[in-house]
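Attaching the record inline, Q. Sequence:
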Amino acid sequence: MSPQTKIANSLTAMAKPRATHSPVTLSIDIGGTGIKAMLLDRRGKPLSERERLLTPAISTPRAVLRVLDQLRERLPGFDRVSVGFPGVIKHGVTTYQAVNLHPYWANFPLQRELEKRWNKPVRVANDAAVQGYGATHGDGVELVLTLGTGLGSSLFTDGHLCPGLELGQQHWRKNKSYEDLLGQCGLKRAGKKRWNKLLQAAIEETRLLFNWDHLYLGGGNARLIDFKLPEGVTVVSNNSGILGGVALWREG
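Structure, as predicted:
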């Protein structure tokens, strides 16, 4: 066998895994304390280790984009990008409800900015929606709540996302919202014991409100739950906020 043939065979062998995995998605989960990323194959299976960098203390768009550039350098070789963002997204634009990061995020064209910056197709969605794609099973009514800096939420019926749900912003008790009481600030004010009691009450409240068949609890503060979960309620891995990224390319 000639050296040229050996080289050609080696290149073919190297190309096969790439063809099997393509298109490769760089899936990103932007949170209030950390920004995580991972490469996924076309079925949504991990192709890399999870990378995590701290969210900047002053989380302006410019500061967060610098962190995203660092993650991109650590995870090269992708074909497209999915981003979960902690706020309402309209056509790839972050709305005024993105205040958990910084007021400058109001009406910021994140999807267009990343496409221009990285020269790759990009889709951006609410982070709880992306987590829902990674956690739900597509059976009946499924609600996802993310317990982190704020309170994220997404609702699915038979695997289809019902867009626009922002349960965290709704008034609940004493003129305070679900997010006021169950987000990070609420946890610090109330303490772990009281916060758990409020969460138990919220679980029953959402059961009556949505008649869900299953409720999934995610986010960094889900690890603080200290009561026995009722039937139909599951704590899911924080990585589901990344693993759901491929589903953005199945929608629309």
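The two ends are 49 Å apart (CA to CA). The CA atoms of residues 39 and 48 lie 5 Å apart.

More tomorrow.
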